[in-house]
Design brief:
The protein is α/β, with parallel strands linked by helices and 225 residues long. It has a domain of 147 residues: HUPs (Rossmann fold), CATH 3.40.50.620. Helices cover 60% and strands 12% of the residues. It is built from seven helices and five strands; from the N terminus they run αβαβααβαβαβα. The protein has a five-stranded parallel beta sheet with strand order 3-2-1-4-5, sandwiched between helices. The longest helix has 51 residues. The protein starts with a helix and ends with a helix.
Length: 225
């Protein structure tokens, strides 16, 4: 009799836990579905915002920063400096082996600017590092405003990282649209869609870092009052 009662006891416990397990699985499935839906909506909003972004074509600032890694970024930044839109230019993320002489040969018309007004940052390895190095450069130069030059799809993350690093500096975006990107109809071009999605995935942790920096800054300000 005792031997028969043990399996029945286990069965009762299993029957009791089964509805709870099903409810938990349903909740996890619902939460996962909502999360995927939110991420998908966020991606569409992000991709669409790239198309609508506009440059401040006549804006001037204390300095210009350009992030390496994309087509025509440095060309546009050097043109802005030659138009006297700012006092100095920082090229951030330059490969350690690249010299100013090599850059002068690549941009011969701007060679005099490399002598007087262009600085190279060879320490930054990513966008977060670009922001930290730009903050240090702007502080040394005592600049309060910057024209930010990078690719259009990279601009939202760049601005987030820069605002995290230098919240009181005015940032003026100057986006460069790569020639091989079909921004206006991104959903019809698999390569453009892939590039935008990869950038969107990188944007999420950058947004988290920015939010954390804002929260810590608010707490620090509250602690001093």
């Amino acid at each position: 009799m005792n031997n028969n009662s043990r399996p029945m006891g286990r069965s009762v416990i299993q029957d009791r836990h089964t509805p709870m397990l099903i409810t938990l699985l349903r909740s996890l499935l619902l939460a996962s579905t909502l999360l995927i839906a939110l991420l998908a909506i966020g991606f569409v909003v992000f991709a669409s915002s790239i198309e609508r972004a506009q440059n401040h074509s006549n804006a001037k600032a204390d300095g210009i920063v350009v992030l390496t890694g994309g087509e025509a970024r440095i060309d546009q930044a050097v043109n802005l400096l030659s138009e006297r839109r700012a006092k100095r230019l920082l090229i951030s993320g330059v490969h350690p082996s690249t010299t100013s002489g090599q850059l002068r040969r690549r941009y011969p018309k701007a060679a005099p600017l490399f002598e007087c007004c262009i600085d190279l940052d060879k320490r930054a390895l990513n966008t977060s590092g670009n922001a930290d190095e730009t903050q240090a450069w702007a502080k040394r130069q005592k600049f309060n405003s910057l024209i930010v030059v990078t690719s259009s799809y990279h601009m939202p993350r760049t601005l987030l990282e820069l605002r995290r690093a230098m919240p009181i500096v005015e940032l003026i975006p100057y986006a460069v649209v790569p020639r091989n990107m079909n921004i206006s109809n991104w959903w019809t071009d698999s390569e453009t869609t892939r590039l935008l999605f990869v950038e969107y995935v990188k944007l999420i942790p950058a947004l988290a870092r920015y939010g954390l920096a804002k929260l810590m800054g608010a707490q620090a300000a509250a602690g001093t009052t």
